[in-house]
Specification:
Blueprint (H helix, E strand, L loop, with lengths): L1 E5 L1 H9 L1 H4 L10 H7 L6 E7 L12 H19 L11 H11 L1 H7 L9 H4 L6 H7 L3 H10 L11 H6 L3 H8 L7 H18 L4 H18 L7 H14 L1
Antiparallel strand pairs: 1-2
Helix pairs in contact: 4-9, 5-6, 8-9, 11-13, 12-14
InterPro entries: DUF6339 (IPR045920)
Pfam families: DUF6339
Length: 248
């Protein structure tokens, strides 16, 4: 299939009318064509030249551990097929991810992000903004691509290029602590931090979440105030982060 993306007008209408349309998101009946027709939009999405295979994402399980495990599976599924198709610039487009959530992967979004009361945070999971947090942590589909992009590493380990992705998803708190940071879209910094964390996990046999949080929130941000960490390679970040967490 060819990837699709909303027109700017379509995205604007959906965001503006979200509260009025919220019940339609949970309906099995298609509604977008009729809705946009009422707005005078015959074309509400465009088809790109980027071709990707149809994929089926995994859902099921109510507990956080199962959902976290399924997220890891879905990152591997989606990023494997999309990694050579999209550039980071293209993957920063909210019109792409919002369209995929509304049309291609609607049922997955509803199943994965359903709360105990049966509802979904529609504004977060179906939409995306250009903000870092939205793309990395909230939008239901873009977070899969970006998690793969930031952690996939076949250069260091061609037998398991997902070793850093698995480290990232070894605990939900690790994802939050990392993606809350201003540097979280810097691939070298993310890889360096996760390489340091993996070394520590291998040595201590646990997730080391408290140490990782301190490293991200306090130490590395303070380090960045006195040095240009954006210029450092992942191996340098790894050494800095590992030495700090090791001392704690």
């Amino acid at each position: 299939m060819n990837l699709i993306y909303f027109t700017k007008d379509a995205y604007k209408y959906l965001k503006t009318d979200l509260n009025n349309n919220k019940d339609k998101y949970y309906s099995d009946e298609p509604w977008l064509t009729e809705y946009f027709s009422s707005k005078g939009l015959d074309e509400f999405y465009k088809t790109s030249s980027v071709t990707v295979p149809n994929i089926q994402l995994v859902t099921g399980g109510e507990d956080s551990e199962t959902k976290n495990r399924n997220d890891l599976i879905n990152i591997k599924i989606l990023y494997s097929e999309y990694k050579d198709k999209l550039s980071p610039l293209q993957a920063s487009d909210p019109l792409l991810w919002s369209a995929l959530c509304h049309i291609t992967f609607k049922q997955y979004v509803l199943d994965r992000w359903k709360k105990d009361d049966g509802t979904v945070r529609l504004d977060r999971r179906f939409f995306a903004t250009e903000g870092r947090a939205s793309l990395l942590y909230y939008n239901a589909i873009s977070r899969l691509w970006w998690s793969g992009y930031l952690t996939y590493d076949e250069e260091k380990d061609d037998t398991n290029p997902w070793y850093l992705t698995e480290t990232l998803f070894s605990a939900q708190q690790i994802q939050k602590d990392l993606f809350d940071q201003s540097f979280s879209m810097n691939r070298d910094i993310v890889k360096g931090l996760l390489m340091a964390l993996k070394r520590l996990q291998d040595e201590r046999g646990n997730s080391c979440t408290t140490l990782f949080r301190k490293c991200c929130d306090s130490y590395l941000n303070h380090y960045g105030a006195v040095a240009i960490i954006d210029t450092l390679e992942s191996s340098e970040i790894e050494a800095i982060a590992y030495d700090y967490m090791k001392r704690l």
